[in-house]
Write a structure and sequence with these properties.
Helix content is 45%, strand content 6%. The protein is mainly α.
Length: 206
């Protein structure tokens, strides 16, 4: 990839709100930025960025200004996730779903949303098996500034690196543990012999 393309991707990504909400159809803001730069993807697929975001992307990419693609959602004020403590069962599924680690808690313990870190992405909603999460409008409307976007991006990248390291450590641990092929084969043969003996045993007449 040329340096010019890399710089274009970074420029586009810096203009996206970094909510990591996936409403654009991509797994995060960066893949969407890459698609715009490398595949000429439309610049109107980001509801959190809204009309103003489309204007900024048009200036960088040279694409014409168009209206927001409503198939991706609608533009609106920032809402924050809220967990009903009385209904939370501590399943921890929402912790895995949050792309910016804005939910705190542990398995079998009550979870809570860190409001300052929540991007309003709504990805936690479908993860909850008891529907104890809802999106609420804060008492004071939130202006999604570039500083908020930078903070969300940092949290997303930190989480991504942590999960990558955990995966690498897990793979390394599996490689360090030799597979007892002989033992597995013996166990499989023993199970097969047991089934054969069971099938050969005469069944009592009814």
């Amino acid at each position: 990839m040329s340096l010019a393309k890399q710089e274009l991707i970074e420029s586009i990504n810096s203009l996206l709100p970094q909510t990591q909400c996936q409403r654009c159809g991509y797994q995060a803001c960066l893949p969407y930025a890459q698609a715009i730069a490398l595949e000429n993807e439309a610049i109107n697929r980001c509801p959190p960025g809204g009309a103003r975001g489309i204007e900024k992307l048009a200036q960088v990419t040279g694409q014409p200004i168009v209206t927001l693609n409503e198939d991706c959602g609608t533009e609106g004020p920032v809402r924050l996730a809220s967990i009903d403590a009385q209904r939370c069962i501590g399943c921890a599924l929402c912790l895995d779903a949050c792309p910016v680690d804005a939910i705190t808690g542990a398995f079998k313990f009550m979870h809570a949303v860190i409001e300052d870190d929540c991007t309003g992405c709504e990805l936690c909603l479908p993860s909850c098996p008891v529907d104890c999460i809802e999106m609420l409008s804060p008492a004071q409307p939130i202006e999604w500034t570039s500083d908020k976007a930078d903070q969300a991006r940092q949290h997303f990248e930190r989480r991504r690196h942590r999960l990558l390291k955990q995966s690498q450590d897990s793979n390394a641990k599996r490689r360090q543990q030799p597979i007892d092929k002989e033992g597995l084969l013996k166990a499989a043969l023993a199970r097969a012999q047991a089934r054969q003996q069971s099938d050969a045993t005469p069944k009592p007449r009814q």
